[in-house]
Amino acid sequence: MVKRILAALLTVAMLLSVCSVEAFAAETVDPETCEHDGDFIYEFDADYYENYGPAHNKICAKCGTVVEKDIECDTEIIEYIPADIYWEAIEDLDSEYILYPDCHWVLGKCKYCEESYWTNENEEHDFEEVTTYEVTDIGHIKTSTKTCTLCKGVIVEVSDEIAHEYDDTTGKCACGKEKPECDHASKKAVEIKGKDIEHKIVCTDKCGEMLGTEGHNYVDGVCTECGHKCNHNYAYTAEWGYKDNGDGTHTYTRVTASECETCGAPSGTVTETVEEHFYYSDPDYGVCSCGSVVPSENAPAASVDVDTLGAVVRELEEKYPGVSFYYDITVKDASETVPAADKELVELDTSYTVGQYLNIELVNTMFDEYGWSLGTVLETETKNLLTITINVPEALLATGRTFSIVRVHDGIVTVLKDEDSDPRTITFSTNQFSTYAIVYKDTVAVEEQEDKGTSVGRTPDMPTAPFGAYVVDMGDNHGIIYGGHIISMPHTYNAAGVCTSCGHER
């Protein structure tokens, strides 16, 4: 309603402005010779109002020249509008706005340009207050009705049930009840809202007077005397965690670890909340509080262990004192971008198959105390280990297939042990960030051994020596050819009597 009134007023003002311009054309006085000694027309400056406040331009009625710009409007008050009604009239209401029950808006009008506008968004009410009481068995209920003399806005405040308080001089309570002779033969515990420690004791005999306060008597978190429910003041420990649900959400679980400090309610309460992943920085980067890494095109889903991540972050804080930063961890497909030298090193060992190349980076963006960017650093190595879990791509999963992660960093190839038992994921710990590869081996059948009369299967383990080397059977031992050197290593036999590195049989 208010907005429609304003729109109508603005329309009228614009029509008057158009008519005034036409009047200028009718008189046709040369602006250069005009002395601007006649009447003036005042035109509201909408652009100025939008950015600074209500103002108008002073225009010569003879020649149409703007004699003076942006003159502050001289306000005459039209009416006062309660703040809540004003906000209801604004169609593009933003959630950051709140209703102001203790103030109103003032709708004004300039006596020169006759434009209407809001002059003040936070002018306090001038209240007239009327108080009434409803007498109850144990006291009274106070109702306060406040009416603003300007905007006529009304605020009604109703109290909780209040015990009588008698004036020592008049012997009367504010509600008008006179204090009777009373020996307080009966009493009642009455809840004080928001008070977890105590309740009030009120006489229920004749006087309804508050006699004092007593502490709650809790059983299972509820006071047996007044019915108050404790809000519980639990202490929490690290017995909580996140579970990535694999659908863009995670489940946050929290466990109470001690009795309530107020009522003694037992611990062990578990709460679970399902939340969408929230990444703290750039859409292409970031780590959710559950450890989930921002998904990247063609890359497998990945997550990091938040405890090991915390150790890495603390390390970076010590490394860059006095600056603020945010960290990002990226796991991206490197099938088309893997360096040729890294690829050659990985594929030296033909005992496994490369499933996918990945590029894992730790990105650190730093800012000074004023928020200005100090640049981005690729952290290639840290002191603390970061535990990462990679979901094996569906296209690579197969029965009898085992997976590992191979890392190439500064020309050194390393096999990182899978730290979990889930065949669909690979968990590993690393402190170097560069080229990685998901590799796998398929279980192969070994012909029936005549001396044992049994058939066994084996999956040769990865060499324990530097990865990416040739392993050759040398009879009594095997040799690892790496970087132009031959390293002699003893055989390591499995239960079937086969060396897990070179395949030599006893």
Structure description:
The protein has 506 residues and is mainly β. The protein folds into five domains: 2-124, no CATH class; 130-222, no CATH class; 236-276; 302-442, no CATH class; 460-490, no CATH class. It has five helices and 31 strands. Strands 19, 20, 21, 23, 24 and 26 form a six-stranded antiparallel sheet that branches.
Features:
six-stranded antiparallel sheet; 31 strands; single chain; disordered N terminus; mainly beta; 5 helices; 506 residues; three-stranded antiparallel sheet; 5 domains
Q: How many domains, in number, for the residues?
A: 5
Q: Tell me the major beta sheet.
A: 6 strands, antiparallel
Could you tell me how far the N terminus lies from the C terminus, measured between alpha carbons in angstroms? 96 Å
User: How many β strands by DSSP?
Assistant: 31
Over the alpha carbons, how many angstroms does the gyration radius reach?
A: 40 Å
Overall SS class: mainly beta
Using the alpha-carbon principal axes, give the shape: flat
The percent range for helix content is 10-25%
SSE inventory with pairings:
Elements lengths: L1 H26 L12 E5 L1 H6 L3 E6 L5 E7 L2 E8 H6 L14 E8 L5 E9 L2 E10 L2 E10 L5 E5 L28 E4 L7 E6 L6 E6 L2 E2 L2 E2 L12 E9 L4 E8 L13 E7 L25 E3 L1 H14 L4 E10 L6 H7 L6 E15 L5 E7 L1 E11 L9 E9 L2 E5 L8 E8 L2 E8 L1 E6 L4 E5 L11 E4 L3 E6 L2 E6 L16
Antiparallel strand pairs: 1-2, 2-3, 4-5, 5-6, 7-8, 8-9, 10-11, 11-12, 13-14, 15-16, 16-17, 18-22, 19-20, 20-21, 20-26, 22-25, 23-24, 23-26, 27-28, 29-30, 30-31
